[in-house]
């Protein structure tokens, strides 16, 4: 039995940097809070909690302590509130998301209508919308655009959507709006991870996708793998694998969502290697 790990899998740049910053701060400071869950992964949250990192949705909890903004980013008024309350702020917003905030803020101030292609309930989209005073028109797969034809407009993307959805949405918007500036702000980490999973799942007999059950990028990876390899399994932790059931397969592929820590991936590999005599051919 051979194990192969997708070339691109696990933590993306933004998440890795947010987790590293958080641990560094928690080692030095007390009363460290992340504003919302830093990442959608129960094991990673437990690990952070072991350093004394708490999660809160209430900024006031961090008065006298430190508040960490996660990689998804937040609305502008959160920064204003934190400043007013004199809370120590550590901004771990991913630079790619930060760039979207800047674009949206600039064009909004210049009188543009902002369109965001993405999921209106996703924290990243809620954050972006907060940089144009929540006036953005949020477009997803099923949206019907009802915009003012003559208003100059700009469109950006939630970083984790597919290019296919972005292109479809832009076409719809462009049909309704005369002057549209297009900023494709999709992050390549997602596409690279998806392409890697797509490629690997075509070549293996069994595919394991590791990541939070509520992580949308992990669910997407699972869908991609399942299309190519019917024997695909979405797990959060190593304990969910019954190695005796997969021993019969020659090639096992592994990929992991953007919020899956390396140590969780390694536990899965160790379990297969120890119980199933698998050999890891690496990335
Ligand atoms: Fe940043 Fe891309 Fe990750 S936007 S948080 S590096 S998926």
In angstroms, what is the radius of gyration? 21 Å
**What is the number of domains?**
3
Q: Please report the number of helical segments.
A: 10
Bound ligands, each once: FE3-S4 cluster
The residue-averaged pLDDT reads 92
CATH topology of the largest domain: Cobalt-precorrin-4 Transmethylase, domain 1
| Gross morphology | flat
Tell me the distance between the termini. 16 Å
CATH architecture of the largest domain: 3-Layer(aba) Sandwich
User: In terms of per-residue confidence, which ranges show pLDDT below 50 for 5 or more consecutive residues?
Assistant: none
> How do the strands line up in the largest sheet?
11-10-12-1-13
Helix content: 40-55%
CATH superfamily label of the largest domain = 4-hydroxy-3-methylbut-2-enyl diphosphate reductase, catalytic domain
How would you characterize the largest beta sheet? 5 strands, parallel
Helices and strands, in N-to-C order?
Answer: EHEHEEHEHEHEEHEHEHEHEHE
Q: How much strand?
A: 15-25%
Structural class: alpha/beta
Number of strands: 13
The top level CATH class name of the largest domain: Alpha Beta
């Amino acid at each position: 039995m051979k194990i192969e790990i997708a070339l691109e899998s696990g933590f993306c740049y933004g998440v890795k940097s947010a987790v590293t910053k958080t641990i560094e701060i928690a080692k030095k400071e007390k009363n460290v809070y992340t504003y919302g869950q830093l990442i959608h992964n129960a094991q990673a949250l437990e690990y952070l909690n072991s350093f004394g990192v708490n999660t809160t949705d209430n900024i006031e909890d961090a008065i006298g302590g430190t508040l960490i903004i996660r990689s998804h980013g937040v609305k502008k008024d959160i920064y204003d509130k934190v400043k007013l309350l004199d809370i120590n702020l550590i901004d771990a917003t991913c630079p790619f998301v930060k760039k979207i905030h800047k674009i949206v803020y600039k064009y909004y101030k210049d009188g543009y209508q902002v369109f965001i292609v993405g999921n209106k309930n996703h924290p990243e989209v809620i954050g972006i919308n907060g940089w144009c005073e929540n006036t953005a028109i949020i477009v997803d797969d099923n949206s019907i655009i009802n915009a003012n034809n003559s208003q100059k407009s700009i469109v950006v993307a939630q970083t984790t959507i597919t290019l296919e959805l972005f292109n479809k949405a832009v076409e719809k918007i462009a049909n309704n709006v005369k002057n549209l500036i297009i900023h494709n702000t999709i992050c390549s980490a997602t596409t690279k991870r998806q392409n890697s999973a797509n490629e690997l799942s075509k070549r293996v007999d069994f595919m394991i996708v590791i990541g939070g059950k509520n992580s949308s990028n992990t669910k997407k990876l699972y869908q991609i793998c399942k299309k190519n390899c019917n024997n695909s399994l979405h797990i959060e932790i190593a304990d969910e694998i019954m190695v005796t059931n997969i021993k019969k397969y020659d090639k096992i592929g592994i990929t992991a969502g953007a919020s899956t820590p390396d140590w969780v991936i390694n536990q899965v590999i160790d379990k297969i290697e120890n119980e199933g005599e698998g050999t890891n051919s690496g990335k």
